[in-house]
Structures are given as C-alpha cells and as structure tokens.
Amino acid sequence: MKHLLNLLAAVALLIWGMHLVRTGVLRVFGANLRSWLARSLGNRFTAALSGIGVTALVQSSTATALMTASFVGQGLISLPAALAVMRGADIGTALMAVLFSLDLSWLSPMFIFVGVVLFITRQASTAGRVGRIFIGLGLMLLALERIVQASDPMLASPATPIVLGAMGNDLLAEIFIGAVLAVVSYSSLAVVLLIAAMAASQVVPVQMALGLVLGANLGNGLAAVLTMAGSAAEVRQVMVGNLTFKVLGVALMAPFVGVWLRFVQPHMPGVAHGVVLFHLAYNVIISIGFIGLTQWVARWVARFLPTKPREQGYRPRHLDPSALSTPSLAMTLAVREALYQADVVENMLVGVMDVIRRNDEALADRLRKMDDEVDQLYAAIKYYLTKIPRDDLGEKESRRWADIISFTINMEQIGDIVERIVQDVQEKKIAKGVEFSEAGMVEISDLHQRLVNNLRLSMGVFLDGTVRDAQRLLEEKGHFRALERTYAANHLARLTERTTQSMETSSLHIDLLSDLRRINSLISATAYPILEQAGALPSASERAHGHEGGLPRG
C-alpha cells in the first residue's frame, strides 16, 4: 500500500507541476501567444505550425484547443483552420513528451531553487510568474524520477503479475484504460510520461504501454469535448472535430502496434524512448496524413452540430473564456465589454430626449428592451470576472478588478433608472397628451446634455484613469447638483404663477430632475477610485460646504 501511495503521490506531483507550468506560461505570455496564434491562421500549414509552437510552450493541447475554439466562437477563423491548429497542437504535446523522457533529473533542484527564489521575492511581478514556471518544471522532473523509484517495489510485488495477467493482451481494454487515465488527469502528456516511466521500470509490458498511449490520445480529445460540452455550438465543433481525428488515428494505428514492436522497438535506445516516440509517430501520422481532411471533417461536424443563428445583442462580444488563465488579458477584455455596456447605456440616455420631444412610443419600447441587454451584459461581466484566478493578481490588478465591477454595477443601475424614466414618460406624458412648458423643456434638455457629456467623460476616466479627468468629473457633479436645484426652484416658481403646462407635468418634471441627478451621481462615482488612489479626494468637510462631492473650480 505504501508503494502504491508513493506512486500516486508522484503522479499527482507530475500533474501539479504541469499545471504550474501551463498557468505560468499563459499568465506571462498568454496575450502574445494568442496574438501569434491569431496571425498564423492564414492557411492550414501555418496554422498547424503555430499549434505546435503554442502547445510546446503551454504543454497542453487542451489549452491550445480552448484558445482556438474561442476564435471560432467569435467568428474570427473558420472551423477547418481551427482543426488544422489542433493537428499541430498534438505534435507539440508529443514533442514535449520526447523531451521530458530524457534524463533531465539533474535540472530539477536548480529549477526548483531558482523558481522559489523568484516567486517569493517578486511574487506579483513577471519575474515571480516566471519563477512559477521554473517551479513547475522542477516538480515535473522530480515527479518523473519519483515515479521510476516508486515503480521498482511494485514490480517486485506478487500482485503485479496477477493484475497484468488478468488484462491479457486485450488492446481495446488497454485503449480504454489509457483514455480513462487521460480524462481523469486532464492531461495526456502526464499520462504518456507516466506510461513511459512505468514501461522503463517494467511495471507494464511494452505492448501494453503502446495500447495505453493510444488510449491516452483518445482520452485527451474526449476530455476536451466533456470540458466544453456546455459551450456554443461553434466551440463544440472544434472539440468534436478534434476527437474525430483522434478516433481515426487510433483506428489507423492500432493494427500496427505489432509492427512497431517487431521492427522499430528493438532499435530504440530504451523502452521509455520507444513509448514516447510511438506517441510522436502516432501524432505526426494523423496530423500530416489527415490535414487534408480538415475540410471534410469540418463539413461533417457542422452537419452533426449545426449552429443556431446569432441573436442580435444580449451576448457578450469580448469575454473570451480562453483568456481567463491570463488575468491581465482577461481584465482587458472585461474593460472592453464594460465600455460596450456603457455604449448601450449612452444610446438609452440619448434616446430619452427623443421620446420626450416626439412622444415616440416605438422608440420608448426599444429603449426599455435595451435595459435587458444592459442587465445581461452586467451579469456576464460579473460572472466572467469571478472566474479570473485572484491569487495571482497584484495589488494594482486587484483594484482594477474592483473598479470594473463597480463601473458595471453603476451602468446597470443607470439603465434601470432610464427604463423607469421612459415608463413614466409613457404613462404620465404620452398617454395623457400633456407637454412640458417651453422653459421646463429647455432646462431638461440642458441637464440631459450635461448628463450625456458626463457619461462620456466617465467612460474616458474608466478607461485611462487620469487624475485630471477624474477631478473634472467630480467638479461636474457639484455643478450639476447646483443646476438641478436651480431648475427645480424655477419649476416651483412657475407653479406659483399657475402655468398650465407646468401644473400638468409637475410630478413628472420633479421626478425627472431627481432621476437625472441620481444618474449623474452614479456616473461621477467612476472618479472616486482614481482620486482616492492619488490622494486627491476631497474631505468630508469640503463636500459638506456645498460641493456635493465635487471639487471647486480652480
């Protein structure tokens, strides 16, 4: 039992080391890798080469698949190009298996030492994340050495021949077991390295090891399909197409296991080398041999998983799931989505005056439906941000994370207020056939235009975060509040003069001024984090002396 636990611990260490390397590479180079991948999709062969390079760096064909599938989901590349990338990704994984099968155990202590020093001393910086990569590489090499050490006692156990004898030479059973191991570990590379190490220690025969390798490749494709089962049809098409190639490859290579054992394996320098080179040969053959079938497989997958017509609106435009492992990139995408949400709010706000002036009920209905889009964008951004790994965020990135959440909440609340304004205009003005007085309309128009300008300014503050623009925005809050009070007093004066139009729209007029003030307060809130960080936020006593949170003009 102790020897089995040692082996399981070594396998877990191998998987954890791969996780550290993959996440570390994505967090340091993720944005550049995505850009490189996107630029290399002009034809099938350059796409396959980019797949090899990206996968060799991130050590995970599944991570490459997620990036590629996200491009398809956004309509940036075609399905055949994505399948060509995956052909290269499989070769990249196999090349890394060959590399790690070499005796590099002497590098393990150096990688771990350097990695820990960098990670502890510069944790929140790029150097600290590079240290994470070194730690992962060191743990992988250490784990492979421990797997070999833990396998020797198991070979001497009397239970081992019984278990192996029960399996016999059933190739289908070996493929099934290899596939299960790959799905459970979520890494075909880890499973192939484990199989090679155990074959080198003679825990498993070479013939069984080759069957397990075929199963690991099949399980890798199956794991990706299961992972993305709830995604859009365009994304699932990439995964199912990749699995189709895996199945075709296993069907093609399975009959040749005996040929490999008879003619190739005897010329290998070691058993482990024979296993990983068989893995490489399998992926090279299905990648090069099947790359001409990408169009055919893409058409078949498209018929098997038809896409639905894209709905207009109501869906995020920039929130790419494959960017989540690169927090800085993911937050950049969240900022872009938040600005798109603000654009929708701006369109709603601009449309309010058209409804008021022209009594346009059709436009009013459209504006109220736009609030549903604002709400759904807020929910999507919030959910996306909660999936960003927070542990590796520095202090600055953590503040930015909170600022994005705050900004989207404010935009969602502004959308709700605009929707209520439109509803009130429909019920209290359009339905009753009344109009604002000429003076009242001028005042409302003035406040409305200031509000639109402030919203645009707040979007700039949110994007760039300059202190001067934040100060201007907060100054405008005080001026807007003073102007709203003046216009409310003017309206009351018109009531005392018993102006008919003012009396008929009094309730709506007062509510409208109040709602516009609330919207402006939500807009101005964008300035507070910037000014607080810069130490330029006015004190409570300054705000109490009539500035309402704004700054006096200099």
Q: Would you give an account of this structure?
A:
The radius of gyration is 31 Å and the shape is elongated. α2 crosses α4, α4 runs antiparallel to α13 and α15 packs antiparallel against α16. The chain has 23 helices and no strands. It has 554 residues and is mostly helical.
Shape: elongated
Class by SSE composition = mainly alpha
The string of secondary-structure elements, in order, is HHHHHHHHHHHHHHHHHHHHHHH
Low-confidence stretches: 544-554
Please give the number of β-strands. 0
Number of helices: 23
Provide the residue-averaged pLDDT: 81
Task: Tell me roughly what share of residues is in helical segments.
Answer: over 70%
Strand content: under 5%
- Largest sheet properties: none
| First-to-last CA distance | 78 Å
Radius of gyration: 31 Å
List the defining traits of the structure above.
554 residues; 23 helices
